[in-house]
Amino acid sequence: MPDLGPHSAFILGAYAAVALVLSALCLWIGVEARRVREELRALEAQGIRRRSARRGDGK
Questions:
Q1: Alpha helices in the chain (DSSP H)
Q2: What are the E-state strand segments in the chain?
Q3: CA of 21: how far to CAs of 25, 26, 33, 43, 47, in Å?
Q4: Residue scoring higher pLDDT (52 or 45)
Q5: What b/e sequence results for 29-57 when a residue is b if at least 16 CB atoms lie within 10 Å of its CB, and e otherwise?
Q6: pLDDT confidence of 2, banded at 50, 70, 90?
Q7: In terms of C-beta density within 10 A (0-12 exposed, 13-18 middle, 19 or more buried), how is residue 3 classed?
Q8: Is the pLDDT of residue 57 over 80?
Q9: Higher pLDDT, 25 or 49
Q10: How many Cα neighbours within 13 Å face the side chain of 4?
Q11: Average pLDDT, whole number, for the chain?
């Protein structure tokens, strides 16, 4: 491992904090995507369709 000098604890701590935050964001995005997908499935099961699925409405 390279010599990080007297501030090695701070540097490694900063890297660890960034890794933790990025991991949490990735997890949050995955959970939110699953929630939205389920919500869309429920709406489509009720007969509510996406605007992008409509044909010939002139818009």
A1: 8-45
A2: none
A3: 6, 9, 18, 33, 39
A4: 45
A5: eeeeeeeeeeeeeeeeeeeeeeeeeeeee
A6: confident
A7: exposed
A8: no
A9: 25
A10: 10
A11: 89
**Rg for the chain, CA atoms, rounded:** 23
User: Is residue 11 within 8 Å of residue 4, measured between CB atoms?
Assistant: yes
From CA 30, how far away is CA 57, in angstroms rounded? 33
Higher per-residue confidence, 34 vs 50: 34
DSSP code of 37? Answer: H
50 in Cβ contact with 40 (< 8 Å):
yes
- The residue ranges of every structural domain in the chain are 10-41
Q: Which two tokens stand for residue 24?
A: 């949490």
